[in-house]
Amino acid sequence: MLSFQNLLESFEKKFQAEIQNIQKTAPVKLYGPIAYSLEVGGKRIRPVLLLHAASLFSSHPETYFPAAAAIELFHNFTLLHDDIMDHAAIRRGVQSVHVKYGENSAILSGDAMSIMSFRLLSQCEPEKLPSVLDLFSTTAIEVCEGQQYDMEFEVKDQVTISEYLEMIRLKTAVLIACSLKTGALLAGADEINCQLLYDFGLSIGIAFQLQDDWLDVYGEMRSFGKKIGGDICENKKTCLLISALEMSDEGDREKLLAWTEKSEFYEQEKIDAVRKIFSGSGAANATKELMKYYHDQGMEKLNQLAIADADKRELRKFASGLLSRVK
Amino acid sequence: MLSFQNLLESFEKKFQAEIQNIQKTAPVKLYGPIAYSLEVGGKRIRPVLLLHAASLFSSHPETYFPAAAAIELFHNFTLLHDDIMDHAAIRRGVQSVHVKYGENSAILSGDAMSIMSFRLLSQCEPEKLPSVLDLFSTTAIEVCEGQQYDMEFEVKDQVTISEYLEMIRLKTAVLIACSLKTGALLAGADEINCQLLYDFGLSIGIAFQLQDDWLDVYGEMRSFGKKIGGDICENKKTCLLISALEMSDEGDREKLLAWTEKSEFYEQEKIDAVRKIFSGSGAANATKELMKYYHDQGMEKLNQLAIADADKRELRKFASGLLSRVK
């Protein structure tokens, strides 16, 4: 079992070398934007989860670097294309690819990234490839389905909590789950352990997104890394907004709707007012409860995993790290 | 060995059923545009080539339907995204996907199509999968590289014939070659035969694109299926334009450049004038010669293929069909 930190360092070193290779490949106008989007960083959570899961069942998790890189490439491809669709100008503090290189470049470089992730997978051990490719491609399509629902929610009058949970399951959680299961599959874990890791990842992935929703409202800019209240300003249908619309009394509900309909407002005034309704209506607590529910569901799966208890430490830390930021 | 016609009919029947399934899948706003772009048709050349190549080495080519469908899906994905990048409003006589469904839908549905082609591949025989996935993903990236060069050529002052040939090799020919080789790989052909079929496809694919360039200028609307002179009106850097710029005398060259710089003109007047320069400069003949060269190169590879001569009939017919339309 290897620590996240160790795995992150060894992954990052190899991955940066890979990025340098990509950057030098012709045509540079195709590969340059790919290298740019990859080197900006991110937490590399998915490849680390893949390698960690592999390390639970194999003493040579580094063998699985291509699959880990594939997941990271695929994840970054989705961000790149999502930014075009969402007209997002900034990603991780720098210009998003479509702003820096133009929309056509962003479309085509994204397409190539998605395909490159499948080319990396073809390096997997031949006997593992059918199940790995099946899982990865199914997951990748689910991520597209999640993005589709997310876009539909933007223009939909009413979204229920269960519709929202299904959307974040597809858009966010399945790729976390797939990362863990792919690592386990490659390292030869049995079917039950593979499935338990998948289910752990699914629950933790949902909790992760709920945390993100909560931190947008109640987090600290410094540790969150994004502007606090961004979702509120954009009327994003997060768990908090959906819950508040369901739970608040008539007066607060009308106030909330009025804020979402205003096209001109002082950002801080809107954020403060909406935050107050989120807290008062019980929506904030409901989101925390839901997060805890999915965290606990994940822990239950982790407890059932047939490995030494000490080996579960890192995944427990990862899961509880989610809750600790939410006070 | 099965005829193209037989294979086309059996492929189309199964593929239409597959399209019906896709159309009914939720979210319909993701899958609807995919079904729309697939059912509009096209000649299904690539899946037929795959199945035909398989039929040369196996008596059950229908087993390879998933791979054939994968190639057709991938090809249509590239058209879908190319149409966004090229701002093309019409595809096969109907509205292109980004015009009918909006650009975000076209991006996301295209992404899903590309991934679906890899999911279909995961159904290949496990022992064939590593080589099939390696070939398919490498080819798919080459197609992106080809599209990148094509976009760059639009804004580049000078493009040489060899740069142009490399572009069409990547954008068009490798997928034809990959179709044939994938069929052969799946049906268990040996490495030499697989490579010969690949090389045959590569040469014929290049000849195919050169024919397309030629037919745009000298073809008949009815059989070409596209507006004659479209490339001329758009100043598309085809083999004819590039050759004419290289081969024409100073006077014609200046006339040609003047036509490409005019922003307002009567279409037919421009088409007639440019066509005259293409013919007079020898560019038309040079393009025909080049087409014949690639055709002959392809036939040489086909001749070397270690199968009964009678079994080469359909591929010969396919290749010579190219030349017969060019007079």
Shape of chain A: globular
Number of structural units classed as domains of chain A:
2
Poorly predicted runs of chain A are none
From the helix content, strand content and strand pairing of chain A, which structural class follows? mainly alpha
Given the structure, what is the number of helices of chain A? 16
CATH class of the largest domain in chain A: Mainly Alpha
Q: What does the average pLDDT of chain A come to?
A: 94
First-last Cα distance of chain A: 31 Å
CATH-assigned fold name of the largest domain in chain A: Farnesyl Diphosphate Synthase
Query: Rounded to an integer, what's the Rg of chain A over CA atoms?
Result: 20 Å
Number of strands of chain A: 2
H and E order of chain A: HHHHEEHHHHHHHHHHHH
Per DSSP, what share of the residues of chain A sits in E-state strands of 2 or more residues?
A: under 5%
CATH superfamily of the largest domain in chain A: Farnesyl Diphosphate Synthase
What summary fits the major beta sheet of chain A? 2 strands, antiparallel
- CATH structural architecture of the largest domain in chain A: Orthogonal Bundle
Strand order of the largest sheet of chain A: 1-2
Largest interface: chains, residues each: A-B, 36 and 36 residues
Counting copies of identical and different chains, the oligomeric state is homodimer
Helical content of chain A stands at: over 70%
